[in-house]
Amino acid sequence: MLKRLRENKSAQGTLLASPTMLWMIGLLIIPLLLTLVVSFGQRSPDGDVIYSFSLDNYIRLFGYSTDCDNGQASCFDPLYLQILWRSLTLAFNTTVFVILLAYPLAYFIARAHPLRRNTFLFLVLIPLWTNFVIRVYAWMMLLRTQGVINLMLGWLAGLFNIPFTPLEMLYTPGAVLVGMVYEFLPFMILPIYTSLEKIDNSLYEAAADLGANGLKTFARVTLPLSMPGVVAGTILVFIPVMGTFIVSDILGGRQVILVGNLIQRQFLDARDPTFGSAASLILMILTLIVTYFYTRKFGFGEEIVVA
Amino acid sequence: MTAEFAVELQDVVKRFITPEGNALNAVDHVTMQIKNGEFFSMLGSSGCGKTTSLRMIAGFEWPTEGEVYIEGKAMGHTPPFQRKVNTVFQSYALFQHLTVFQNIAFGLEMEGAQKDEIEKRVKHVLEMVQLTGMERRKPKQLSGGQQQRIAVARALVKVPDVLLLDEPLGALDLKLRKDMQLELKALQQQLGITFVYVTHDQEEAMTMSDRIAVMSKGKVQQMGTPVEIYERPANRFVADFIGDSNFFEGRIKSLSKNEAVVFIPDLKAEVTGIPVSQGLVTGEEITVSIRPEKVLISEKPMNQNTFRGRVTNTVYIGTDTHVYVDLMGKRVKVFEQNRISRLDPGSFYTVGQDVTLVMMPENVLVLKKE
Questions:
Q1: Which CATH superfamily groups domain A81-306?
Q2: Of the four, A22, A75, A84, A297, which is 20 to 30 A from A108 by CA?
Q3: How confident is the model over B263-289, as a mean pLDDT?
Q4: How confident is the model at residue A5 (pLDDT cuts 50, 70, 90)?
Q5: CA nearest A195: which of A223, A235, A217?
Q6: Are B190 and B313 members of one domain?
């Protein structure tokens, strides 16, 4: 038996992959199928799922409403489309800000003395040791009306005798953006660092040798060669930001509702798993579409692994 | 091309701080003048300062002391992209994200050349390195030898005053390396561009160079034509590093106008009639050297400068047979050319055989002690 296994390479592969396969089938594929089934169901008045084939949940998501102000039976309400659009733009903005912040830092680390690089990477990773939720609460302490930032500004204004009203920073889209950028920064720094670190120093020298100054070297050599890292980082940041609800829950309150919050509330507060399932699937499809077009243009950042 | 020298290093020092915190002169007061149109090599083992010297010409490093001149102009801290020199890197340093065409066009685009001008020049230089038709390939799709040619083409397309080559053939196999040596030499003669070539391979340096600087421990040990360096090594290091040599410790017994008699205690014998030119004095301790191929084996004893010995080992290497002869406890290497095709082992020198070695005085070199 063992001897036969030793000779059979494909059986070895199957054996090695099977724990993960079983895990994924049991905890991803089957729940996903259940979600699909539930999303076509209807909510009973006491919050149970009535299995049927109804598109009501999807129609509702795309703006069909039976709760109208003007007494009509049905009308168009863009509430959920606005939530989807808000999630999409927030994920996009977060990714852009994260790239803008992460790239220079990754570049700095990659160009630092080899002995110091590990220290810097260690520092980048330290926040990940603290619980995600605690880190978001820390931002709440900073941003709220009586928070650290407002206290500092008030003190400064007092020094110069300028009248000061505390800034309303918490529970704004800006607060959610700041929190998201902060939370996902390390996931962009690491892949960009990895691809930058691989660029041989002689390539920079070759570019200089051929007449390129620092700016041209960056545009023509550094940036294209580090794109795999940017692409990989974008995938690592964009997809989770699309679905997360903790940051917007704590820093956005009732003001900044994202798809993640919508889904969470459908399952927990509104007790309508059918609508929650439909929203989950739409979120997944939306993410897949965006990722598909993005990777078709830029690849998966696979060179980062291969090269 | 008005200056006398294409490149000039004047008393250049490059000091590095080692991780232990000590100062180390990687290049230690080097002065050299490289003529226009010359194929000049810096030869030495790793850590001798040859690559650092080259990098200071390219502008990747700046001298701690001294000055580098290119076409008569002091370079100071001029960055690489403002120097009219181009480099062929040991690793080739090709841009993997660009095609062959884009790689070669890179330097021309930086100059702001017109599109059709770029196309013309890239085409021309690709013909020169015999890689026409490879424009659209990526460097990874090419063999090592082809990548090497692209690296040369990318540097040459800029028509530099000086082309710097840092062990460009190091990664190629022997046969290809020999072909490329001749090709590079032909290219250099055809273009008339000054080549500064760094290598640790003495045969490579000999094959291609007009002049060679032999370097060791950051210093130039000798500068000269391949013939000068081989036939008249300046010191024991050069005699040992370039080719093979037999060394004997000796003392000047007597001096005439341009000939010396040297006594060699190890052999309890003297060599007479050695041509000498340096300022030597009678009684001075010196080193005597003779190349293995210049030691002759004679069947019969002769009168002068002959030594009786016994064969201790022979090694057949194809073109030559290396015969090791014991001369009063001192091992002497003799290279005998295999001029005649033969298989019979008895026709070679055999271990234990008594032979007479002849060291013709004109083949014996007197090297001063450092």
A1: MetI-like (1.10.3720.10)
A2: A297
A3: 86
A4: confident
A5: A223
A6: no
Model pLDDT for residues B74-112, shown as the tens digit of each residue: 999 999 999 999 999 999 999 999 999 999 999 999 999
- Token couple for B3: 């200056």
**CB-CB: which of A209, A211, A212 is closest to B58?**
A209
B107 contact residues in A (CB cutoff 8 A): 210-211
> For residue B108, what are the β-bridge partners?
none
From the list B80, B95, B96, the residue facing A209 with the nearest CB is: B80
Burial B179-210 (b: 16+ CB within 10 A, else e): ebbeebbebbeeeebbbbbbbbebebbbbbbb
Whether the CB of B139 is below 8 Å from some CB of chain A: the reply is no
Q: Residues of CATH 1.10.3720.10 domain(s) within chain A? A: 81-306
pLDDT grade for B232, boundaries at 50, 70 and 90: very high
Which residue is closest to A205 within chain B, CA to CA?
A: B60
B103 in contact with chain A, both atoms CB, cutoff 8 A: no
The residue range of the domain holding B287 is 244-368
Is B198 an 8 Å CB contact of chain A?
Answer: no
Selecting from A203, A212, A220 the residue whose C-beta is nearest the C-beta of B81 gives A212
Residues 6+ apart with CB under 8 A from B56: B9, B12, B14, B27, B62, B63, B68
Alpha-carbon distance B108 to nearest alpha carbon in chain A (angstroms): 8
With H, G, I as helix, E, B as strand and everything else as coil, classify residue B309.
Answer: strand
CB pair distance less than 8 Å for B79 and A221: no
Min CA distance, B27 vs chain A (Å)? 20
Digit-coded pLDDT (tens) for A239-285: 999 988 999 999 998 888 999 999 999 998 888 999 999 999 999 99
Identify whether residues B91 and B45 lie together within a single domain.
yes
ipTM greater than 0.95: no
Tell me which H or E stretch contains B34.
strand B23-35
- Would an 8 Å CB–CB cutoff place A219 in contact with chain B? no
Task: Give dist(CA B200, CA B48) in Å, integer.
Answer: 10
Q: Please report which confidence band the pLDDT of residue A307 belongs to, taking 50, 70 and 90 as the band edges.
A: very low
